[in-house]
Design goal:
With 272 residues, the protein is of the alpha/beta class. The protein has ten helices and eight strands. 42% of the residues lie in helices and 17% in strands. Strand 2, helix 2 and strand 3 form a beta-alpha-beta unit.
């Protein structure tokens, strides 16, 4: 069984609509996927409806943004109720805050003599975009000729260390975990930064964190072994996924997947 439990759609900053993601996942031979858009579950129902036409299962998920100091900490929520009022309200607040953040970043770019309009960024988000993000800004920068690629835009202009960067500042990590739990989901730490795992994990565990995202396309074997060891020592669930956004980023959907035996405890916890 092939699974990819970290996929984005046009509901946040992915390139494909929820239906297109399901179609391409079927073509790629995936058996189970999770739709984990940033701070919204708007794409889940459409993906699950589309999946009913195929022998593929879509897990309802979300990737909740939070901030710890100056670091972005993302919490994956698996098996959440997409109709949960707390998630719907979070999505509304997140959409508003991300719009404010984008305007702040555009203002900072303007002071750097980089002229990008908010409308140009919204055009990249498209009509289905519920949550606007930096990939939309990066695409606008490429189209305007300020960057050669999305990667180049992040590397030089809008990455975490850039002058234009503005933190999302939505929630603290413990609140993100509580949000997932209130929505009936299982919270796992997405792509945990190596330098923060030891110091931050005890706080997150106390808040109810259930596991870590261990398996990722570009992870070093030593990093995977370390995270596996931490999970086993603490009785934590393990997950894995491609964090897929865009086919133009050099990796096709389905190129990376995890086997069911690698994450079987998470699947059992979710009732699969």
């Amino acid at each position: 069984m092939r699974l990819d439990l970290h996929i984005h759609t046009t509901a946040s900053d992915g390139a494909w609509s929820p239906g297109e993601v399901v179609n391409e996942a079927v073509v790629a031979g995936l058996d189970v996927i999770a739709i984990t858009d940033h701070d919204t579950v708007a794409g889940v129902a459409t993906a699950q409806e589309r999946a009913s036409n195929f022998s593929i299962q879509v897990i309802s998920g979300i990737e909740v943004s939070s901030t710890y100091g100056t670091a972005d900490i993302h919490v994956l929520g698996y098996f959440v109720d997409p109709r949960s009022p707390v998630l719907i309200e979070h999505g509304r607040i997140a959409g508003s805050r991300r719009a404010e953040r984008m305007r702040e970043m555009i203002e900072r770019l303007d002071r750097m003599e980089i002229k990008i309009s908010y409308g140009a960024v919204m055009d990249e988000a498209g009509p289905e975009g519920v949550v606007i993000g930096r990939p939309h800004l990066a695409k606008a920068l490429v189209k305007a000729g300020y960057a050669k690629s999305v990667w180049d835009a992040f590397e030089r202009l809008i990455g975490n260390e850039s002058r234009a960067f503005v933190p999302t500042n939505l929630l603290e990590p413990t609140a993100a975990i509580n949000l997932v739990r209130e929505a009936g989901g299982i919270p796992l730490w997405a792509h945990p930064p190596e330098e923060l795992v030891d110091s931050l994990l005890p706080l997150l565990l106390e808040a109810g964190l259930r596991g870590l995202e261990v398996y990722r396309p570009r992870s070093k074997k030593t990093d995977v072994l370390r995270l596996e060891s931490i999970c086993k020592a603490n009785g934590l669930l393990m997950s894995g996924g491609s964090d897929w956004h865009n086919p133009q980023h050099g990796r096709a959907l389905g190129d990376f997947y995890v086997d069911a035996h690698e994450i079987e405890d998470l699947l059992h916890a979710g009732g699969l």
